[in-house]
Amino acid sequence: MPSFFNATPRPSFRDKARLSPLPSHTFHEKEYFAQNSSTTTFPSGWLTFILIPIPLTHRRLKIVLPISPRIWQLSTSRLGRKTASTLGCFLFMLCIFLTFAVGKRFGSSSKTWPQPFQGDPPSLVFDRQDLRKVWEWEIASGHYPSSEKIPQEIGFTSPPRNPSVPPRDSRIRLSSLQAPFLADYAVGYGPQRRYYDPLNETDSRHQAYPPRPLSGSVADLDVIMEHCNFSTSKYVRDCLEVLRVGGGLDNGKRTRRGSIDNWKYLYVEDTVNKTAPSRASPKPDLYRPHLNKNDDVVTIRQKTPLEPPLKLSPPRAPTSPTGDDPCDPDHPRIFHMFWAGPFTDKPYAALLSYLYTQNLGLHHPEGAPQPKNVCRPQFWVWVNPGPAAAVPNPTALREMFTTLRKNPWSSPFLHRRFKDVIKFKMWNTTEQLDGIPELKDEWRNLEDLFNSGGYKFNVKPVNNPATSVVSGSSASAPGPTKPASLEDDTATAPEAAPSTEKEVVEVEEEKEGTGLKELLGSKSEASYDRLSVILSDLARFVLLHRFGGIYLDADTMFLRDWEELWGWKGAFAYRWSRLPVYNTAVLKLNKGSALGSFLFRTALRNGMDLHPMTVAKYTKDAYLEPLLLRLPDALFDAAWLNTEWYQRERPPYPYFTAFKDFFESPSSDGAAPQALGFSGFFRGAFSYHYHNNWWEPFDPARNFPDLGPRFINGERAARAKAQQPLDLEEEEDVSQDRRDLSWATVLKRTLEAYVRGEIPNMYGEWLEW
């Protein structure tokens, strides 16, 4: 028993490995660990390594500090290891920043010190007075048919007069909290508006197809924004219902829901109030000198040096809606599309949907006079005959039409029946840029035209004068600046001017035969023609500024008549999904507008970058966003939000979780396309954008133009290429077809049935040959 109570206690876990009774540490513990810490090593006499533990692991992060070990030991002994480590890291980062700051100050072209915490650099190159001139020109020309506020940063001391909105008896909104007085509204004196329901304009009791909007109709985009704006938590599903009901596309299927007056967005203009109201402003002359004195206040961030004052032509007075000619020469109805590479089923489907939906008068016999109150649009397809960086040769125009005539996807649209509504034109970069007054004298001085979102593709000069490659510095003019009329195949190609070595540049190749300069169209996801995509960003703004109209990407399908969008005289693009920036897959600009002049001069000073997100920055920095309205993507791209995991709790129909669902419907929804057809595909939207997928066929089982005996030669050629021979005596069996047809297949076959004369278009009109 005594031996039990006098037993030596068991060693703790700290002493298990030690049998010696001597102390395991000295009383100078702090100095010992400061000198022998396992988190610090000294590989040399000038560097110190700090080992920092990584949470949730047994590893440590090694950080190198350019500090002498002696200085490190002295600092840790006086400040402690944690404080010394923090201070050392801060000094190290400060040294790195000072190195880059000195390099930017003395080694860069800007010769300026960096400014931290300033965000993106400003893109604005005009002063406030020029921005007011843009606003005044656009409003006076009738390009702002909206009642939305004008940004106060523009500095209107008296409200401008707006000929595109009717007068209204509303209390004048004064910005009394600011000095001087700033006007954020315009005084309307335009025509009165009569809103209408298309189904009430005709007898819809025996109407199996929706009525077309009245000629001269206008869409009130303020009303559409109220019901469709994603920023105010509006759903695409609800927006499509408003578009469907307000546009009369729910004929025979309307469910009683009470009054829908606030859903009416279509209107026609009646009589004009000729009495223009006076510009209400409390003593504007008293405040205007004070405002001009402060034009360069910091509320507008600008680049330096500023551009010279904008020189604008006189504003164009809006055309009276009671005029005899339904077409306004200042606002031509032209659809533009840019295409590079061989014609495929993608632009083929876009053109078929244009024929199927727009009011082209094809239901009247050929040669018959068109209705006097209808202005039918045209579709101009701009074909780049070579790679994006190539200059057309002297016979490019003739070769282009020869290729179009031989291609089964494009040859049907050269038929004389479509000669007044579809025109093929050749794209010439030099000719087009020389046709822009804001660019023609300076674009050749650019280092590179291929600039998209700040990403520039490398180019290098070459000494081979036979190479025909164009870039920013190329000044070779392949022909005269006179625009060639390319609507018929008898036009002759312009003669090419000889190139010089300074004008010729070559895009650096990636691989032999697959370099960027050699790509002509996107044949697969791996061989994506990036240069043509960037060139199309430039082409859409150039074409609209020169000719006016609406630009559409080739991966777009028309879903309804665009009469009311033509009636809205302002400029617009649509929203980039959830982001508050533009997507210019659909873009409307007015010919020779002040807004276009601003965009080109601003882009020229910012590396000629016309990517949609960069254009959004231009307009935002200049407070011009209301002049280029950002419409909800529900109008042109109704599936986009769902593909990015938004609004999936209340999606529109069809419900796409990926853009590829358009070409390959999920098996659970495979019955819907055939059961619902064209009328069940995002009903109410103006168009659908399926976002590239150039390599996915619309109709894998019948991957050829199926337009009937009138175009049988093209069908034979396409079938031979697809190894699907045509036997006119033997009818094809349904067993050879796919069981479930995708939405893309159903839409393509519906459009082809209209051209074959088997069904009418979506408005019940039959194609007359």
From TrEMBL:
Composition skew (Pro residues), residue ranges: 306-318
Gene3D superfamilies registered for this protein in UniProt: 3.90.550.20
Coiled coil: none
GO biological process, one term: maturation of SSU-rRNA from tricistronic rRNA transcript (SSU-rRNA, 5.8S rRNA, LSU-rRNA)
Region (Disordered): 150-169, 301-327, 467-504
Metal-binding among keywords: no
A Pfam family it matches: Gly_transf_sug
Alphabetic keyword roster: Membrane, Transmembrane, Transmembrane helix
One Gene Ontology CC term in the entry: small-subunit processome
Compositionally skewed regions (Low complexity) per UniProt: 467-484
Bilayer-crossing regions: 84-102
Entry's family note: Belongs to the glycosyltransferase 32 family.
UniProt-recorded name of the protein: Glycosyltransferase family 32 protein
Taxonomic path: Eukaryota, Fungi, Dikarya, Basidiomycota, Agaricomycotina
